[in-house]
Amino acid sequence: MGLIRATGTIGGLTLISRILGMVRDMAVARFLGAGLASDAFLIAWRLPNLFRALFAEGAFSAVFVPMFNRTMAEADKENPGSGKTAAMIFAGQVLSILFPFLVIFTGVMMALAAPVVWAMTGGFPDGGPEKFTLAVNLTRITFPYLALISIVSLLGGILNSLDKFWVNAAAPILLNICMIAAVVFFRGDTPVETSYTQAIAVTVSGVMQLLWLMWACRRAGVRLRIGVPRLTPRVKHMLLLILPAALGQGAIQFNLLISTSLAARFLKQGAVSYLYYADRLNQLPLGLIGIGVGTAILPALSRQIGGGNVDAAKHTQNRAIELALFLSLPAAVALCIIATPLIRGLLQHGAFTGADTIGAASALAVFALGVPAYVLIKVLTPGFYARQDTKTPVRVALISMLFNLVGNLILIWPLGHIGVAASTAFSAWVNVLILYWLLHRRDQLRADLRLLSCGTRIIIASAAMGAALWFMGPLADPYMAGSFLTRIIALALLCGGGALVYALAIFAVGAYRLSELKSLVSRRSS
User: Fold this and answer.
1) CB atoms inside a 10 Å sphere around CB 306
2) What is the pTM of this model?
C-alpha cells in the first residue's frame, strides 16, 4: 500500500475517532467540569493510558511489526510460501508469554492502586482524602483496559504487517462510542457518580476492541494459539527490545505524566483538567498525522533496510518528514492562534465555565508550539526501530525527559500550568533535534533538496494562514458561546477559512502543484 494511501487510511479512521473523542470530551466536560471528579478520573485514566502508549501501541509497533515482517521474509526466502505460517507461529509464541504476564501485572497494579496514585499525586493536597479515594477507586476500575488493549495491539500489529491498516485504526472508535454512551445514557446525578460510569466504560471498550480485532483476524485467516510460555530465541530477542522501545516511543507520554503529577501536587484544583483538555486538542495532529505516517512507513522501512536498499529508505523517510510538516505546521499555527475560540466553542457549557476556558486555552496555545515535534518523533523513530536499534531512542527520550523535568521545576512556579505546557513542548523539540542529528551523523538520513525547498515554502504558507486566523479568531469568538448549531457553524467557518487560506498559499508559494499532490496519492512505497 502506498505511503500516502496508507497514511490516509489510518489518518481518516483516526480522524473519525478523534471527532468522536472530541464529542466525548464535550459531553464529559459538561457533566464533570474541571473540578474534583474530573481531576480524579483523569488521573485514573492517565495510568492505563500511559502503559497502553508505552507497551501496547508504542512498543509493539516499534518492535513486533519489524520482527514479524522479518520472520515472514526469512521463511519465504528459505521456503517460498512458508512466510505467513512462520510469522503466525512467532506471534502465537509472543501471545503465550504476553497473556499470563498481563493478567499478573494487572492484578498487582489494581492491588497497589493506592500507593501508585499517591506517588503520582502526593495524595491531592488541594482536594483532600475524598479526591484521593475517588482516584484510587477509579484506577482499579480502569486498569484492566491495559491488558485488553495490549492484546488488541498484538493483533493489530499482525494485521498492519498484512497491509490491513484500517482494522486496527478503527478500534479506538469503540472506546469513544462506549464513553459517549456512558455519559449520555448512564451518567449519575452528580459528577462523582458520572466519573464511575466513565471508568466502567473504559474497560468495557477494551473488551469490545478485543472482540473486534479477534473477528478481523479470523476473517484475515490469522489463527493464534496460546500454549505453554516458551522463551524461544526470537521471542527472547523481542522482549529485550520491548522495554527500550517503550521508553523511546513513550517520551511524550512520560513527559505528560511528569507534568500531570506536578500539576496534581503543586497547582490549584482544575489544573490537571486544563492540561488534559488542552492536550486532547494538541494531540489531534499527532493522532491524525504522526501515528498514521509512522505506522505506514515502518513496514516499508523494514523491508527496504532488510533488503539493503538504503537509498530507498532515505527517500521514504524524507517524504514522510515532508508529509508530516505539510500537515502539522499549519495545525500548530492554528491551535496556537485560535486556542480560545476553539476551547470555548467545544467545551464551555454546563459545568465547564468561562474561567476553565481561559485556563485550558492558555495551555493549548503553548502546547501547540510543540505539535510538529510530536509528529516528527513518530516519523524519525522508525528509522531506528527498522534497524532493530531500540537503545538509541531510549537515551534520547531520557535526555528529553530530563529537560522536561528541569523545565517544569523552573517554570511551574512563575507560570503555573502554562509553564508545564511550555516545558513539554520544549522537551519534544529537544527529542526531535537529537534524533535527526544521530540519523544524519550515521548517514542514515539526510534532508534532500526537495525536503528543504518544500519545507521552507510550507513555513511561509503556514505563516500566511496564521495571519488570516489572527483577524478571524476575534470575529468568531462571540459566536462560540451561542447555541450548539451556532458553535458548530462558527467553528466550521473559522477552521475552514484557515484551511482555505493555507491551501491557496501552498499553491501560491509553489510548495506543491496539483499534479504533484495527485502523484503523491498514487505513489507506492517500494
Assistant:
1) 17
2) 0.70
Rounded Cα–Cα distance for residues 187 and 100 (Å): 34
**What are the grid coordinates assigned to 153, written together?**
495491539
Q: Decide: helix, strand or coil at residue 81.
A: coil
SS (H, E, C) 428-478: HHHHHHHHHHHHHHCCCCCCCHHHHHHHHHHHHHHHHHHHHHHHHHHHHHH
For the segment 388-446, what is each residue's pLDDT rounded down to a tens digit? 787 888 788 889 888 988 998 899 888 888 998 899 899 999 999 999 999 999 888 88
The residue to which cell 464533570 is assigned: 32
69: closest CA among 217, 288, 234?
A: 234
Count of domains observed in the chain: 1
Q: What is the mean pLDDT of residues 467-487?
A: 90
Q: Helices 144-161 and 65-78: crossing angle, nearest 10°?
A: 40
- Structural domain that includes position 336: 3-522
User: What are the backbone dihedrals phi and psi of residue 164, each rounded to the nearest 5 degrees, phi first?
Assistant: -105, 70
Residues with Cβ < 8 Å from 136, sequence gap 6 or more?
A: 113, 114, 117
**Hey, what's the cell of 281?**
486538542
Distance of CA 24 to the CA centre of its chain: 17
**CA 224 to chain CA mean position, Å:** 28
Residue with cell 491495559: 146
